[in-house]
Amino acid sequence: MKPGNALIGQSGGPTSVINSSLVGVVETALKSSKIGNVFGMQFGIEGVLENRLIDFSSVDPSVLKALQRTPSSALGSSRLKLQEDHFEPILKVLKKRDIRYFFMIGGNDTMDTIHRVVEYAREHGWEMYGVGIPKTVDNDLYGTDHTPGFPSAARFVAMSVLQAGVLARDMQRVDQFVIFQTVGRSAGWLPAAAACARQQNGDAPHIILMPERPFDRAAFLAAAESAQKKHGFVSIVCGEGITNPDGSPVSASETKDKFGNVEFGAMGGTSVAMMLHRILSTEFGWRGEFQVCESLQMSAADRTVALDIREAHSCGKQAVKLALSGTEGVMVTMERANKKGEPYAMQHGTAPLSEVANHERPMPDNYIAKSGMDVTKAFLDYAAPLIGELPEYVRLRKK
Questions:
Q1: What is the mean pLDDT of residues 197-204?
Q2: CATH class of 4-148+303-358
Q3: Residues 6+ apart with CB under 8 A from 399
Q4: At residue 256, does pLDDT exceed 70?
Q5: 150-301+361-387: in CATH 3.40.50.460
Q6: Distance between CA 136 and CA 98 in Å, rounded?
Q7: 83: how many CB neighbours lie within 10 A of its CB?
């Protein structure tokens, strides 16, 4: 292994703990005798193309410490899809800065970027070690038990649905339903997390719609009518990426990003929550509301889980350790180290970048109820240690 400098970047959507992973990389790399300077890409891989790099050796340690609890992407992010004509100028910058260690924090598309850049460098005689650090609130990355950012986003969803459910219960003579929409293009981990809000029978949410199951309009209307009759209101949580039986988005969005992914919150597309609102209002004549908070669940520092911060930081540290040991072409993963019934514990593993880039991880069938509109106890057992305890609110006994 040749000594040299390190380069770190952030890509895709933010999380409330992505900067903790960044700090984990920077602190560990700066302590290594094999790594000289640590550079940060401004705005993802675009920072390399534009030679916009930050030298972390000049960043005050107190800033790094505070950054660990700062939400969003401190380096700036990007969704640039690499083209063939990008690789030559990228390699030129890598050689100029003597980059031998290459790290990026992100999701599937980010892992593909690391893999392609390192492979191109190797093919052109430049030895470099690339390791990916997982990040996505969607929790759909292949090869890992969960991703840094998911626990905090899941807590945001559970807290929001818990509090909105209390409001809807008390305001049922005004609004008969409430709909909460989460992010999540093709996996239902985040809408499913809303189930952790339940503390008593009848608590919100009553219906959970996940992308893993096609939207059945008749079954949905029947479930909504039943819940409203039983509880006086109905609380619904939906993932932004739910589809009709023919595969078309319920949101009716036709806007796509540069990677070909449907942008559910983009102009020109109606949100899923809005569509469901129309369906219920038209069918039953009910009044109701919908809540679409978009990126807030990705960057809500006030609901960040302490466990999430620690694990994100640990993933950053582990990435540097792997690269320094000669392991590359992988993404750091997290695996549960506890046996059933024991307290939650985590250990690190790895997954090949090529596999992470080309696979997604939907919710397994045993986490989804037979109705397709709720979760099982197995999912609650999986999610509860990540989200942590939620506040308990009292209610008046009305005689």
A1: 95
A2: alpha beta
A3: none
A4: no
A5: yes
A6: 30
A7: 8
Amino acid at 331: M
Rounded Cα gap, residues 254 and 260, in angstroms: 11
Give the residue extent of every domain in the chain.
Answer: 4-148+303-358, 150-301+361-387
Beta carbons within 10 angstroms of residue 282's beta carbon = 9
Q: Which residues contact 335 (CB under 8 A, 6 or more apart)?
A: 144, 145, 346, 347, 348, 349
Q: How confident is the model at residue 184 (pLDDT cuts 50, 70, 90)?
A: confident
State CA 166 to chain mean position distance: 26
In contact, 106 and 324? CB cutoff 8 Å: no
Say yes or no to pLDDT of 386 above 50: yes
pLDDT in tens, 64-99: 999 999 999 999 998 888 999 999 999 999 999 999
Same fold across 4-148+303-358 and 150-301+361-387: yes
pTM above 0.85, yes or no: yes
- Which residues are tagged catalytic? 138
Residues 6+ apart with CB under 8 A from 198: 204, 205
Alpha carbons 281 and 290: distance in angstroms, whole number: 12
The pair of structure tokens assigned to 271 is 């949100």
73, 46 Cβ separation under 8 angstroms: no
Listing DSSP states for 313-370 in one string gives: HHHHHHHHHHHHTT--SEEEEEEE-SPTTSPP-EEEEEEEHHHHHH-B-PPPGGGB-T
Dihedral, CA of residue 382, residue 388, residue 391 and residue 392, to nearest 10 = 40
Contacts of 282 (CB under 8 A, 6+ apart): none
What is the token pair recorded at 308?
Answer: 């999430």
Task: Determine contact, residues 212/362, Cβ cutoff 8 Å.
Answer: yes
**Residue type present at position 79:** R
